[in-house]
Amino acid sequence: MGKTTIVKGNVFLTTGGNFKVHSKENIENHSQKQVIQKGADKGVTHNKPKTATLTDLKITKIEGPFDENGKLMDKIGFEKFYTYKATPSRKPTEAEVKLLKWATKNDNGVIKELGGVAPNNQLSNDGKIIISIAINIDCEKTRVYAFYKKASESVSVNVTMIEPLIIYVCGYWNKDMPYAGDQWNEKYWGKNLRDVSKKYLKTEIELFLNGAGNWHSQGGIRWKNGEQFATDRYKNQKSKFFKEVFKDKRKIMIISHSMGGAFAEGMISTLVKKGVKINKVVHLSPADTSQFSVTLPDKTYQIDITWDPVLSYKNLDDSQTIKGMKYYGLIQNPKHDEFGHMYTKEETFVWNAFEDLEKIELLFNRSETKYERLASDGLGPATTIKWEMKIYDTKKIIHNTIFEKIIKNGKYYYFDKKMKKYYTLN
């Protein structure tokens, strides 16, 4: 931006052709006498201002993404920076380099210009304009554009995101197992539940961890074990865990069962500190729930089943939900037997309950006043209690799961079998 000041004297501007002044803001003329404008042929015309042509430069080609070593990548990680190169139609000026715009289109959606990135444009030695861009929107594919006037499909590059990763954290197992590996997965996790969870996240990439400890271990100890495990793996750059989780920058979903819940949350606390993108966390029948907290409350879900003989013992003196849990669903065992705890790591209907808990919307329908008569305790007369029931309709349920109890955004809802609706109590 420049400024010209005339202190005194006359100023004459003479040109044999056109003379144009463009401004993105105001043009002001001040005079102590008159402001005179003359048009010899067609007078003085006042029209809507035209946009100034900033450059005639065009982009003919885009290349990328390239990693930090200059290698062209066929897939990229989330929130990880990669270099893109735009080839101009001629050598750009320094100002033209900074004028180049970039945009993305995710999963065949709308082209969106990336604001604030143009100042990062650099001119490389081979005459190409380069920039580093990270994709931080959940998508499977994206397209990157470089342009001066308008983004064009013919001058863009298609980018595929690296496949997501599911980390399964198991509960108690009655024999020794490695902390990471894929040799014993089906011995703990049921194939049905794994299949539907992989379909949900659209991936075949899995990692299995043992988060149990021994049968009498405490949740707080397992939380610390999970935290230490992730810290150790972060330091070990040769480990499979480091490559899959820290280096590749995958979108990650963590599924825990029983005593693995505390270990999983300890691990998550470290992953978040190290910048790992965690998409969802699902705790199935977690144990020792009062001894650890949710790390990502807006992305974490808990599913329990009734009845559950294991948690009836393990959580006898604990809260029903993990501390800080905003999304909780209690379902009934459709088989009505004593194996509920086992089903929450094996059966499709358990995963369906998670999907319904994630999507369900509860819409207020009406209020009803209820009266309940309480018998005398022998020390006084019988009493009547008055309370208000707020009744809700449901929306967006995929699998028609019926929850005995729901926590949604921290609010409690209960299911009435006669009305077949959910309600809250004042």
UniProtKB/TrEMBL annotation:
InterPro entries: AB_hydrolase_fold. SUPFAM superfamilies: alpha/beta-Hydrolases. This is Alpha/beta hydrolase. It comes from Flavobacterium columnare.
